[in-house]
Amino acid sequence: MEERILSLSPGAWNDYELIDTGGFEKLERFGDFILSRPEPQAIWDKSLPDSEWKKQAHAHFAKEKNNPEKGSWQQLKKMPHNWQINYKNQQGLDLKLNLAQTSFKHIGLFPEQAVNWDYLYESIQSFPGEKPKVLNLFAYTGAASVAAKAAGADVTHLDSVKQVVTWSRHNMEASGLDGIRWIVDDALKFIKREARRGNIYQGIILDPPAYGRGPDGEKWILEEQINEMLKICSEILDPVNNFLLLNMYSLSFSSLIAVNLVQSNFKNIKNAEHGELFLKDSFGKRLPLGVFYRFRSF
């Protein structure tokens, strides 16, 4: 089986720009507002001086000393707590996405994922036969769910955090869509029930975190549970007309790990691709932001 090893980054995007990276930070523009945030992969030097970062940024996320994932936003210029940006591609996808400053440095959007939104939109539009049933696991604020819905899929969106599911609903409504099925649950528990019920999906999207918690405190550790999860996903994925998109962000993960995981759990894989997602800053430095494996039967 031939595979293409890819290194992918979103195309031109009016509402997003990675301005600079380095010193374990990144400087980004989302619409009209510029943010500086921690970035553990940016181990090189910044291209711009710190003074220029401070001059440009509307807000800076300062980490807590004892917990690098938590911290607080320091407002450097006036900007709203919530705002909205647009994403369009040449195939007709048009998303409106709501952003907000959170205590975990995130703002409700991972820009490198635009590559995956494009893939989902094109795959669903070209899907043979009736509209596919698509399951989005660890779906976060739902840009992938909204992209799949915009392409015509019957979408089930699952996340363990009620607040981000509500956020996803707002993204759907802002994009002028409706009809996504919302589920707040532990992903592994849910797909085990789906397998017992005999429910089948034509498309599955997985973007699991390195660590996480289910709604009842269930522990998720990527290295320990992703193999079991893919094994069960293989039971609920249509064996004939199908697609799967796996995305993982872990500092220690190569896309070859994704290859081995998927190929050991799924049969009759066609049109497989794997590789790395990245964003390029305005000085040409490429920031790696996760690995992916995807396939589709058509």
Automatic annotation (TrEMBL):
Ranges where the S-adenosylmethionine-dependent methyltransferase domain occurs: 90-242
GO BP: any one term: methylation
Key words of the record: Methyltransferase, S-adenosyl-L-methionine, Transferase
InterPro entries named among the record's database cross-references: Glyco_hydro_b, SAM-dep_methyl-trfase, SAM-dependent_MTases_sf
Domain of life: Bacteria
Keyword Transferase in annotation: yes
UniProt GO MF annotations: methyltransferase activity
CDD domains for this protein: AdoMet_MTases
Range of residues in the leader sequence: none
The name this protein goes by in its record: Oxidoreductase
Taxonomic lineage: Bacteria, Pseudomonadati, Bacteroidota, Cytophagia, Cytophagales
